[in-house]
Every structure is written in C-alpha cells, then in structure tokens.
C-alpha cells in the first residue's frame, strides 16, 4: 500500500499511484486517450524519470523526496479566451498551501512559477486540450520541492531547506489539493474578477521597478495581466503586453 490518500472533495478522490514513471503529465494524457477519467483524477509518482517542464525544459526531482503529480480537470465553463484563469487558480492554490505550511511569504512569478525568497519551490505545467469555444480537458502537472535539500541549480529551494523540517508528503499533498479545490470552485461560480485580484496581489515584482529583456534591456514595472494572460509592463509611461517567449526577468 502506498501512503497517499486524498482528504478532499473531488481532486485526488481517484488516484493512480505509480512507484516510478516517465512523466505524470504523459501518463494522464495516455489515460485520457484510453478511458474517461473522472474530474479531479490524480496521477502521482515518487520517482519521475523524465519530468516535463515549461518551454521544453526538464523537471528534476529526487526520488521519494518531493511531490510530482498531475490532475485531470474538465473546466468546460471556462472559455478558451479565459484559459489563463486556470493558470491563475492553480498558482494561487499552490502558493496559499505553502503560505499555510511555511508561514512565510510566497510569490507567483508570471506565468506560474512559485517562489520563496526569489527561489523556485514549485513549477506548474498545464496542458490544455481545446474544443471550439471551451477547454475540453486540462492536465495540470505540479512539481513541489518538499524534502529535497540539494539542488543542481542555485535558484531552487524546498520546504525542508527553508524550515529545516521534514514533511509528510501525504499531508502536503492534501494541503495543496484542498487549496486548489477552493480556487477551482471560484471558476465554477464565475468569480473571475476575484481570481484576477488575488493573482495580482500575489504577483512577484508587481508595481516594482526592475530590469527586463525584450528586444534589448529596459527598466519597467509589471502593472497588470491582460485578458489573454499576457504580462503588462509599463515603461516610459507606455504599457506593452508580452507573451512568455517575448520577455525575460533580469533583476
Ligand atoms: C516548470 O518548468 O516549472 C514546470 C514543471 C512541472 C513539473 C511537473 S512534475 C509533475 C508533472 N509531470 C511532468 O512531467 N511535469 C509536471
């Protein structure tokens, strides 16, 4: 028997535990082609050997130390034009759970990296399948560094590194899924305004002057997210919206 059990309303009620797998997002995608997994089904592994990250990167996670899982959702109330709201609620769910567990400030770096003290503690990869006007299904992949304390990259951290404590993975998993559930219900109730306000108030570098790069280095401040989920940065009294590939954060 594995140690994972979901104490939630619907996320993780059906849970496929794999001692190891290539990528939980890929396993979830395979499930969707073969069957009709229920809303909230989770695929979770303790040893992910080929984790997928954003922009074609890999997600590395030490076996048995962290959470690596994917949630299958059918956010069919969400129009394609509003699909970034799913990124917002997942990021907020993870960030809120971490605030509760750690008791320290947690930020969401656009579009959906979770940072503590400028270091990444969690990464999120959402893969949407679109129908004509709505999202048919979404695979929400979450990697959260829990008990790992050595990292190949400098800009990574974990719950254990921050607090010098060892965490029960099932407890942390439950905090995260319950928190995501709470925000997901806001989508179902149509309260998109509240979601956007919460996202902006947790956003890394919001309303602060920093250096960015996009066709050259410039100084500006993040002021908003537009309806398509682009980052709105103001520089020299002019506002421009950037896609993920169009801008990098410098310092
Ligand atoms: C990022 O680049 O920040 C996103 C990382 C997402 C990693 C998670 S781990 C569980 C799920 N399965 C994957 O293959 N990737 C996601």
Walkthrough of the structure:
- This protein is α+β, with helices and mostly antiparallel strands and 251 residues long.
- The strands form three sheets. A seven-stranded mixed sheet has the order 1-2-5-9-8-7-6, with helices on both faces. It has a five-stranded antiparallel sheet with strand order 13-12-11-10-14, with no helix packed on it.
- The model has no long low-confidence stretch (mean pLDDT 96).
- It has helices spanning 24-34, 84-102, 159-163, 169-188, 192-201; strands spanning 15-18, 42-45, 51-52, 58-59, 67-73, 107-109, 113-116, 119-130, 135-144, 209-213, 217-225, 231-235, 238-242, 248-249.
- It is globular, with a radius of gyration of 18 Å.
- Residues 23-25, 48, 51-54, 57, 59, 68-70, 113, 123-125, 141-143 line the site of biotin.
Shape verdict:
globular
| Total count of helical runs of at least 4 residues | 5
Strand order of the largest sheet: 1-2-5-9-8-7-6
Q: Report the major sheet.
A: 7 strands, mixed
In total, the number of strands is 14
Portion of residues within helices: 25-40%
As a whole number of angstroms, the C-alpha radius of gyration is 18 Å
Backbone structural class: alpha+beta
In round numbers, the mean pLDDT is 96
